[in-house]
Amino acid sequence: MFKKVVVTLSIVVASLGFTSVVFADDSVKKDIVDIALENGSLNTFGEALKAANLVDTLKSEGPFTVFAPTDKAFANLPEGTLEALLKPENKSKLTAILSYHIVKSKLTGNDIVKATSFETSQGQKLTVSTAGGRVMINNAGVSMIDVKASNGVIHVIDAVLMPKE
Predict the structure, then answer these.
(1) What is the rounded end-to-end Cα distance, in angstroms, of the chain?
(2) Pick from 130, 161, 119, 153: which is nearest to 20 by CA?
(3) What does residue 59 show for φ and ψ, rounded to 5 degrees?
(4) Does the pLDDT of residue 54 top 80, yes or no?
(5) Buried b (16+ CB within 10 A) or exposed e, 65-77
(6) pTM
(7) Distance CA 127, CA 116 (A)
(8) Which whole number is the average pLDDT over 97-119?
């Protein structure tokens, strides 16, 4: 019975355009920050976490769910936006934006596809929908789910989420 449920969930997740990643047991010993910094496509996100002083928060026990934008997502921001956000005088704005990508609980891919919204650590909600067979978090497509960490889970998204000001 259990195998049937797992297979069914895998088919549903695959049909929604997700890539599910399962790491060896050693990776689960790593926290969200370590996994993000070691991932070749989340370098900008890792640097932004450092600039916003969110590293210690995301190294704590959690659990957390992080919707991590890829380097390409950051590159798609309007010209000069990322550079401006990384300046020390814009730290509070950067912190608000990155906190909008964090949920203070562990949400698996299965939890995401069943929900309509989640409250972020920044205080605003993220909206979940489907478009063209893809799961969307606000305007960002989810491209990879369930990257497990010792203190939560990462879901990779293809756009930077911007909270309402």
Answers:
(1) 48
(2) 153
(3) -100, -5
(4) yes
(5) bbbbbbbebbeeb
(6) 0.83
(7) 6
(8) 95
